[in-house]
Amino acid sequence: MNSAPCIITVAITGSLPRKKDNPAVPISVAEQIESTHEAFEAGAALVHLHVRNDDETPTSAPERFGRVLEGLRKHCTGIITQVSTGGRSGAGRERGAMLHLKPDMASLATGSVNFPTRVYENSPDLVEWLAAEMKMHGVKPEVEAFDLSMIFQAVAMQKAGKLHDSPLHIQFVMGVKNAMPVDREVLEFYVKTLRRLAPDATWTGAGIGRDQRTLQQWSLALGGHCRTGLEDNVRLDRDTLAPSNAALVRQLAQLCAEHDRRPATPAEARALLHLPAFA
Predict the structure, then answer these.
(1) How much is the pLDDT for 167?
(2) Mind listing the pLDDT tens digit for each residue in 131-144?
(3) Apex CA 98: angle with CA 93 and CA 103, to 5°?
(4) Domain ranges of the chain
(5) Fold for domain 5-272?
């Protein structure tokens, strides 16, 4: 049995879900702060952030990120803040326009991949620039791995001194149409490869939609960490919309107990990810 703490990441909003999909999706700054606080109290130690305009369209506006981060630092003591630099919220370098706000972490895809209706484009020049901005501002990347090459690229960048001076943290994303499939043997191979290339690395499993719970179960069994939240999945089960991000966190906390794991506290999560203590 593995009694190690599990870092629960809550991805509260994302770029795609709208109120019409689930009224609980937090859009305004106030809603995002309140939803994160509820999830934090339910056991989330890390929040993954996208921000939206008032019309629900995605944006990378630093002003919007700044207001959310200020609220979270005030109301969610010690929570790890992670901003998205994903491509649905902006183009080119505007995707990293908020990094000067110095969140604890930021997402970093180290390569391009097909998405359901488009190419998620991450050119080598843009990846290098985002990584350099993160390092300059002391922001640790969470490498979003949609295929095997992204793991190798992240390890190469780490060895070249282009990333935050701490062990790698990788998120294996499975279940996006046209990208990495949901396959237990594939995940086990990726975890084995990461341990071979970067023995001190940490990792999280993220599944999309109905595959969210599957990835949580596999990740808990394999000693990894887990992600939940309305960005990836708007339902508690096939027939029930999730009433909040906190409800999804509580569901995952129960799953942790079933695998003899427990949610990591913010302080434990910071230590596991080699992040400084909250000040």
Answers:
(1) 98
(2) 999 999 999 999 99
(3) 130
(4) 5-272
(5) TIM Barrel (3.20.20)
